[in-house]
Amino acid sequence: MNIVVCVKHVPDATANRTFRASDNTVDRAGVDGLLSELDEYAVEEALKIAEAGDGEVTVLTMGPEPATDAIRKSLQMGAHKGVHVSDDAIHGSDAIATSLVLAAALKRLEYDLVLCGMASTDGVMGLVPAMLAERLGIPALTYAVEVSIDGDRVTVRRDSDTAVETVVAPLPAVVSVTDQINEPRYPSFKGIMAAKKKPVETWTLADLDVDASQVGLDAAGTAVTSYQARPPRSSGTVISDEGDGGVQLVDFLAAQKFV
Question: Angle between the 68-77 and 37-52 helix axes, to the nearest 10 degrees?
Fold first, then answer.
């Protein structure tokens, strides 16, 4: 079985993230980046499926040169090879353009199953897996907390607030997984060393026959018009209890419409 995992290189959530003054896009060069945490669950699930049978895991990403780090982390975990779509024209692409590029790349790869995290930790839209499936003309099974493969079918369990759903679809299919599905492994020293020898291909938009006018900031359906830094937290209200602390607390909660 050939499994492709779509991963994303995102700014570290613990860093001081900001936007580029030149075009109001996320500043990815000024902060450290890493493999999106939610994508680690997709990589882990792909490895589990591959290890249970005769499978190969390819990781696919798009983005500037540092995005290769997301591939390397996946290879260190155990993935077999990587593909990096890198092109200056991609900068500023929205979810629609992202799905266009990833779908074009997938059409050049052999796959039985495409796995994705349920969202990226920088965008948190969760739309790309469904868009990918639509562009590829295959089923989408989203927000899976359990995945199983039986022959040419994939079955997922999806938990909602009101129901537990079991969804079955024929392969190939796109499946997005949640952070409840597994516990991603840490790369071992052996895995880190082995990753250095694993192949990583770099493709451009021209390699994928994607018109640059369809991607990038100018083609995006949304744009950040302005931004400002979050103001520092001010000190909270301090209540000195001189016998009426309870009354002060209730008055404060009432003023904030908490009670």
Answer: 40
